[in-house]
Amino acid sequence: MATVTPTLTISSSDAFSSNNISVSATANLTAVAPMQDMSTIIAEATDGANSIIKPTSAAVAYLYIRHTSTTNGTTANTTDSVDVEFTTSDICFARLGPGEFLFMPFNFAGVTNGVQLETTANTVLCEYMWFTKG
Amino acid sequence: MSTLTPTLTLTGTAADFGAKLALSVTDSLALATTSIVHNSQEVMSSTAHTTIAALGDYTKSYVFLKNLSSTANQIITITGRSFSSATVDYNNDPTTTMDAADMLNKLVVGMSIHGTDIPAETTVASITNTTTFEASATIGASGAQSNVTCVFGEQMMTLGAGEFAFFPWASTYDLGAFCATGTPTLEVRIFQA
């Protein structure tokens, strides 16, 4: 068993003319096996080819994914986006642009659903990590 | 154009990794000049599915969600896609029917089901054929009902008490939510790119 503490801050000094945006959130999470340490995947524009989490018997996994802005980890930059999709339906529920990331407690929907990546074009190197909720 | 700066850190003791966890990422996100910035608190229901962001109201947006409850069993489930059908029939049994046109390419196993006489947390357990599926629980306990309007949601995440999420929403499908029990409050912040 492990303890994971995510902290998120969101700030902006110019989204509003009248006041700044300053959001902060933190949580103390318990994580258990199986876990996926920081890993990379070269996502492709092929439907269903880039699964990063398969359904497990657990209900929830804390999931982190980031678009690295490169095609394959070299200096080749890309502006292509990465769709984060349900494996059951190929439906996109998040779209990562270059440098963007997500963090969420993903729901396996009763051992049926997982997560896969699909680029809008070409290839994109993404990093990801997940922990099963304890 | 304005800028939104999110920063995420993940720290802790990840014994299974054989190393201490220490991750920090930040980004600089451009918001449109006419960006919609939404900030609300939505009270969840265990019997109804609530649309928290409709796809037609936003283009791609950055979404922050937080379950503000401190009660452990007040869990909020977020759906990444939902649809409704007014052709659902059931009769005190898990076996359920609906029109093929409503079901085709929409219904998947694991979807949550919301409607009259349907217990909280009922999901689609299996799909039998083009017009029939099995629910995870007996529905329609009060007897035969036909052409009931039900909402089906593809479960995306589950926010326990105090948990949060941040993600770039593609805005290709509605975002919805419901809870397991009680009436927890969901904090919703949406920043349109």
Commentary on this structure:
The complex is a heterodimer of chains A (134) and B (193). Chain A has 134 residues and is mostly beta strands. Chain A has a single domain (32-133), classed as Jelly Rolls. Chain A has no helices and ten strands. The N and C termini of chain A lie close together (8 Å). By secondary structure, chain B is mainly beta. Chain B has one helix spanning 100-103; strands spanning 2-14, 19-26, 29-31, 37-43, 50-53, 61-67, 76-90, 93-97, 112-114, 124-127, 132-139, 145-159, 164-169, 175-179, 185-192. In chain B, strands 5, 7, 8, 9, 10, 11, 12 and 14 form an eight-stranded antiparallel β-sheet that branches. Chain B has a four-stranded antiparallel β-sheet with strand order 4-15-6-13, with no helix packed on it. The model of chain B has no long low-confidence stretch (mean pLDDT 93). Classes of the chains: A mainly beta (134), B mainly beta (193). At the A-B interface, β1, β2, β3, β5 and β6 of A face β1, β2, β7, β12 and β13 of B. β1 of chain A pairs antiparallel with β1 (2-14) of chain B.
Number of β-strand runs of chain B: 15
CATH superfamily of chain A: Jelly Rolls
H/E series of chain A: EEEEEEEEEE
Number of helices of chain B: 1
Shape of chain B: globular
Overall mean pLDDT of chain B: 93
Q: What structural class do helix, strand and pairing data of chain B support?
A: mainly beta
What is the general shape of chain A? globular
Q: Please mark out the parts of chain B with pLDDT under 50 across 5 or more consecutive residues, or reply none.
A: none
Distance between the termini of chain A: 8 Å
